[in-house]
Amino acid sequence: SQQGEEDPQALSIQEGENATMNCSYKTSINNLQWYRQNSGRGLVHLILIRSNEREKHSGRLRVTLDTSKKSSSLLITASRAADTASYFCATGGPNDYKLSFGAGTTVTVRA
Amino acid sequence: DAMVIQNPRYQVTQFGKPVTLSCSQTLNHNVMYWYQQKSSQAPKLLFHYYDKDFNNEADTPDNFQSRRPNTSFCFLDIRSPGLGDAAMYLCATSRDGVRKLFFGSGTQLSVL
Fold first, then answer.
1. Are the C-beta atoms of residues B112 and B54 closer than 8 Å to each other?
2. What CATH number is associated with residue A16?
3. B18 vs chain A: nearest CA distance in angstroms?
4. Of A4, A51, B41, B111, whose CB neighbour count within 10 A is largest?
């Protein structure tokens, strides 16, 4: 069943601006991951943060995790047109290797 | 390059006519997954193979079946497609102990 829920559902920003999206989940997790999906394509893994980590960086991406609030955020800094995509959070439980995905945030970066 | 390949990219079938989607991988990953994704929705796990062990999700309709003849290949069979089965079908792989998923480009299924 779907575990994470992203907020907002859609986001439109100007090139160069930062984009922030949030994910909330319901049960305990082993890790939380973020994926990107370009229109009509498969998902691409962006970043994984473990339950004992609070913040992680990868290039222009910054992910935070607050297990007490069961929430995570993804920040994309200095956005580019190529960042236009849907972004999904996915959670994995402590005892399984399946991922449950949220409904995603659709990000549009205007040139 | 090592990757996950799905064929065909687009598949059109008729209502009630069996259809098979295929997935192959060169990553030598032991876990393979099939997800169904409808427009603007979350990918929904249908089933997965852990090595040769098949694991069905409780809410996956009986109309959907899967085969994994070897490590590299996995098939999704839809026995009698209905209009509601039109969706993007995504194959993914992972290596045991590493939770990151590698996805194929998907097969967009249309049911007429």
1. no
2. 2.60.40.10
3. 23
4. A4
pLDDT at residue B101, rounded to an integer? 93
User: Chain A contacts of B42, Cβ < 8 Å?
Assistant: 2, 88, 101-104
d(C-alpha A37, C-alpha A28), whole Å: 25
A97 touches chain B (CB under 8 A): yes
Q: What is the pLDDT of residues A90-99, one digit of tens each?
A: 998 766 678 8
Task: Write down the domain spans for chain B.
Answer: 4-106
pLDDT over 70 at A1, yes or no: no
Contact B69, B1 (CB under 8 A): no
Helix, strand or coil for residue B92? strand
Domain count for chain A:
1
Nearest CA in chain A to B10: A40
Using CB atoms, pick whichever of B42, B90, B96 lies closest to residue A104: B42
CATH code linked to domain B4-106: 2.60.40.10
A1 burial type by CB count under 10 A (0-12 exposed, 13-18 middle, 19+ buried): exposed
CB contact under 8 A, B106 and A40: yes
Instruction: Show residues of chain A in contact with B41, CB under 8 Å.
Output: 103
**Option in A33, A35, A41 nearest B105 (CB):** A41
**pLDDT tens digit sequence for A70-97:** 999 999 999 999 999 999 999 987 666 7
